[in-house]
Protein: ABC transporter substrate-binding protein
Amino acid sequence: MKKKCKKVLSVILTGVMILSLSACGGGQSSPTGNSSNSVSSSDSAASGEETASGEKPVITFMVPSFYGTDLKNEHSDEVIAKYEEYTGTHVEWQWESNDTYSEKMGLTLMDKDNMPMVLTASGNLTANVVDAAKKGAFWDLTPYLKDSNSYPNLSKANENVLKALTVDDQIIGIYRARVIGRYGFSYRTDWAQAVGITEEPKTIEDVYNMLYKFTYEDPDGDGKDDTYGMEMTKYTGPIDIIQTWFGCGNEWVEQDGKLVPVHQTAEYKEALKWMKKIYDEGLVRRDWATVDSGTWSEGCKKGEAGVFIDVMDSGKRIWEYFIDNDVKSVTNPSENASMTMVGPINGATLATSGFNGYFLITKSGAKTEEDVKNCLHFLDKMNDNEMLVLADYGLEGITYDLNADGNIVQKGGLEPQYTPSSGLNQSICYIPNPASTSPTMVKTEPMMAQDAAYAVNEKVAVFNPALGYLANSEVNAEVGTDIEQIIEDARTQYICGQIDETGLDAAAKQWLERGGDRLVQEINELYTNDTAK
Structure:
């Protein structure tokens, strides 16, 4: 083994993190203390118009921060002025680090007296959110989403997707729409050429061979042992994607007419054994379980790793980094390096749920119906073309130009975290459109490759068949978050060699004993009784 192994620190969670409950200012905080006090009438609340005193309605909004630069960069004040003027709303942002967001979310749900009006949740419905919903923590949005006059964008939400955000027949959240085929496999094109790989990987063995060659056959041609196959992070989404290659499903899988959690399948263990093999052979970085998601792509950008498994837009952004920073191809120095976006391996990849994250309107934060209308007005207006352009592309003349046809041409030079509108897209539902329809983006080669990968992925993307049932499972609301963590921790520990297969089995047994057996039973009862499936 050419690479020296470093001892990997334990990733066992040792307790709930104690985090500050004070809001993190985004550089534009209002002197207003209580958001509900800033609303004067239902008319102004519904329309977002200024109150009689000239003050804009105020909403408080908790969102994840991926870079720590959210609306704090040069020209961010111009972005703030634009969305406030357009929506007629002042937003007090509460930015929370994405790496600790789930812990902060849990603490916020317990702190009933200090909830923001709009609370962003990551991923799909979780047990603690469902439990809070059953206790009446959130507004029922069902009647509002039927009001197409007041909310012309939000009222077009997909009813099937909304089912996954329905608890006790009440729609408690507004989803953030996502491409179904967003996840997949990308790799550095010139590195593959340098090590003699002429075809895109199709099988798991193809991927292993690529990772091995990228690690041990000097793909950058510098004569040094300074590369490894794949970039990874403590965010374990890439492992979820890899598992689908082995046929074990997406969190749950249908087998013999029943829904089974994937960690109970033989395919799951096969996938983890493969992951452990590439870890033991040094084909991934030794400290991957401690790498923050905010710096995760740096290894590929800096030429340390050649494979990136996550959303296809991450592969696109790495390619754009090569272009913006004039990173040359190692096989053809007259060209910039590029990424090949394969998408599926072994004929499969992970499907999204059609959304990733959602917005909850809390009853302790939004105390009145006027507050609710303020929040919904802002969320609806942010889906207009003007705000989609502002959030996704920034400011004309600074981060994009308009060509002769009036369409958007992005300007290079600034990475996403340094743009004026950094973080603003975290407030957008992308309903009904994933991007501005007028003006539209003039697409670059990386963008077109990303879209092509999306189309391929969607045909083979593996869905979670239990998603809707989990949202309405009482057992999941009771124990789901805790027992899920048991499996997450054990998976990471097994790959890193901290536990063996016996330890993996012990974790699966503990999952059952702490409520997993009841969860499987209830999910299958809901599945059996679902006449619409």
